[in-house]
Design a protein that fits this description.
There is one protein chain. By secondary structure, the chain is α+β, with helices and mostly antiparallel strands. A hairpin with a 4-residue loop joins strand 1 and strand 2. The longest helix is centred in the last third of the chain and has 71 residues. About 60% of the residues lie in helices and about 10% in strands.
Length: about 400
């Protein structure tokens, strides 16, 4: 019938809304320990199931939300938000968001080049076998000096972001110093506006560099936070056997973990490595902390140069303003003197009968002389007062 109205159940509406939200997908690139990359067009729920990360941690990687630079260590992943680098690092793969971005493409290529470790492993084993022919695959001594997978991925990200910010700083320096020199030589509205834009860009860049530096400093100050980044160690601790003669192949992607499991299989009574031993990661972070701190020092030096230029320009403007005040005072003094002459002329020009006008022709000469002396004295007093107050522009 025409008058019938059909109501859609609320549950169906909610399901349709959820499906619509879940239909929104983003591009990710997955790079494993062999350097093989695969582009994924999935939604955030698929990423959460894949790497077992919470939604609140995944929100940090949302480019629509303004989150500062962050390096978070979770149970099985490292959440990395460094400017345009938004990645999730696990013990065996790296998930990088927006792989087709111009700033992200070089990072993907660098990860594909540096993450594979077969050549390093073969070279390390060959050197070890030459020195100790009796040792074979059970020791893996040549592999102990290599970082685990997550640290190699973290190193690529830190190197990329530090190089990116340093390049932006050098570009800003190249443009700012000539602009400041031009401003000091000629103060104009165009030069002032150019320097103002450069100063705004420098302030924004300084804040970005400061956030990355603060995050690295916070990690270096807390051993527990650094220990949370040891994903391979936590995986080895969860998989390490209580006893046994053989060393299972728990984690093939990390030679460091393989060497630890080998030492465990030999029945050593000493603990493999203390949980608070973060020397490897500390050295890695300190290297890039030094680099980002150097970049920040460049920006601070640039800011000081801008401040010095502003002080110099203010001094010049004060000097010009004092000269204008002196000129105004000079003109005002001359106006006062002319006013005195006008007053005398007005007095003598009035049609009032005076007895001393008759037979006293010499009075005109004395009136002119006395009026001139009065005007000169007034002008001299005003200019002396101005010099005493420091308004002469010197």
């Amino acid at each position: 019938m025409a008058g019938e109205v059909y109501l859609v159940p609320a549950a169906e509406t909610q399901v349709a809304s959820v499906k619509k939200k879940m239909a929104v997908t983003t591009s990710w690139v997955s790079i494993d320990a062999k350097g093989e990359a695969a582009v994924l067009d999935v939604d955030k729920y698929a990423i959460m199931r894949r790497v077992q990360v919470h939604a609140r941690d995944l929100r940090i990687l949302d480019p629509m939300l303004s989150y500062p630079s962050t390096i978070l260590g979770r149970e099985k992943v490292i959440v990395l938000n460094l400017e345009h680098i938004k990645a999730i690092i696990t013990a065996d793969e790296v998930l990088l968001r927006d792989p087709f971005d111009d700033n992200v493409i070089p990072i993907v290529a660098e990860l594909k080049r540096r993450l594979p470790q077969e050549n390093l492993t073969c070279r390390g084993q060959g050197e070890e076998e030459e020195e100790h022919p009796g040792l074979r695959s059970g020791t893996n001594t040549g592999e102990e000096n290599e970082f685990p997978f997550e640290f190699r991925a973290l190193e690529v990200a830190l190197e990329a972001i530090c190089s990116f910010l340093d390049a932006r700083t050098r570009e800003l320096e190249t443009e700012t110093y000539p602009a400041l020199d031009e401003l000091t030589s000629m103060i104009s509205s165009r030069n002032l506006d150019h320097v103002r834009k450069l100063k705004s860009a420098m302030t924004r860049l300084t804040n970005r560099v400061q956030k990355v530096r603060d995050e690295l400093e916070q990690l270096l100050d807390d051993d527990d936070d650094m220990a949370d980044l040891y994903l391979s160690r936590k995986l080895a601790g969860a998989c390490s056997p209580v006893s046994g003669s053989g060393a299972p192949y728990w984690y093939p992607s990390s030679p460091t973990i393989g060497s630890k499991i080998s030492r465990t299989s030999r029945g050593s009574a000493v603990t493999i490595q203390e949980d608070n031993d973060v020397e490897e990661l500390e050295m890695l972070l300190e290297a890039y902390f030094t680099q980002i701190d150097s970049t920040l020092n460049k920006l601070i030096t640039l800011r000081e140069y801008i401040d010095d230029t502003e002080d110099y320009i203010n001094i010049q403007l004060d000097s010009h303003r004092n000269q204008l005040i002196q000129l105004e005072l000079f003109l005002s003094s001359g106006t006062v003197c002319l006013s005195i002459y006008s007053l005398v002329a007005a007095i003598f020009g009035m049609n009032i009968p005076y007895t001393w006008k008759e037979g006293h022709g010499y009075m005109f000469k004395w009136v002119v002389i006395l009026t001139g002396l009065l005007c000169t004295s007034t002008f001299t007093l005003i200019m002396s007062y101005a010099r005493h107050k420091g308004l002469n522009g010197s």
